[in-house]
Amino acid sequence: MEFYGGTEHDVDVVIYGNKLVGAFISENGPTNFPSFRETSATTPSLLPPDRQAQLIVAAFKCCVDIGLSDGIFNVEMKMTASGPKLIEINGRMGDAFLRKWVRRLYGVDLAMCAFMISCDIKPFVPKFQPYERLMGVMLLPSLHSHLVNDSHFRERIKCLQDNGDVLFYMMQEDNLYGSLGVSGTDPDVCREKLLALCNEFGIESDTYKVSNFVRYFRY
């Protein structure tokens, strides 16, 4: 595939009757070269409002132009110097942690929206700016299996979850364990909290530089 410069984004669009009902943008950090697997993410988007609007319109048009008229679709895009560029369209909502993140920030359950649309009911998607920000890093089997399988790690994570200090999401895929996330009022607060956790747990390493993956998440 051709490589596009710029920032990478997931745009989850809600479409009913060929009309855009809502859209949610998240930012992805750099991939762990030479892999193209995403390493980190934050939402809501840090792009200026006009650039966000470009991404949403582009994602929506890409979907309807290929006949996706009703449903929740995850569109991966790059925002380049010359505008949005399509990477891929998934005929489903965003996977992994995105559903939980959107539900926490916006009070919208994408799975419920998909169910309503399948029943020919238009979902309601409120439009407001969340009061908090979420930022997280991915955990990979090739690098972090020793952590995920460690009982002390799990106990510490559960304690932090119970206190509301972290968002931890586990998956059962071969190439991704899940994500470890934090909340905060702005990107700097989130970055400091996330890096402190990654250093505590040993997620930050010479082969997985979380500090590099999240340094671009700035206003």
Can you walk through the features of this model?
Helices cover 34% and strands 27% of the residues. The chain is globular, with a radius of gyration of 17 Å. The chain folds into 2 domains: 7-118, D-amino Acid Aminotransferase, Chain A, domain 1 (2-Layer Sandwich); 133-214, Ribosomal Protein S8, Chain: A, domain 1 (2-Layer Sandwich), CATH 3.30.1370. It is of the alpha+beta class and 219 residues long. The two termini are 30 Å apart. Residues 66-119 form the ATP-grasp domain. Keywords: ATP-binding, Nucleotide-binding.
CATH C-level category of the largest domain: Alpha Beta
**What's the CATH topology name of the largest domain?**
D-amino Acid Aminotransferase, Chain A, domain 1
CATH architecture annotation name of the largest domain: 2-Layer Sandwich
Q: What's the overall geometry?
A: globular
* Helical content band: 25-40%
Q: Which structural class do the helices and strands define?
A: alpha+beta
Major beta-sheet overview: 8 strands, antiparallel
Query: Helix count, per DSSP?
Result: 7
Report the oligomer.
single chain
Query: Span from first to last CA?
Result: 30 Å
Unreliable residue runs: none
Q: What is the succession of H and E elements?
A: EEEHEEHHEHHEEHH
Task: Please give the domain count.
Answer: 2
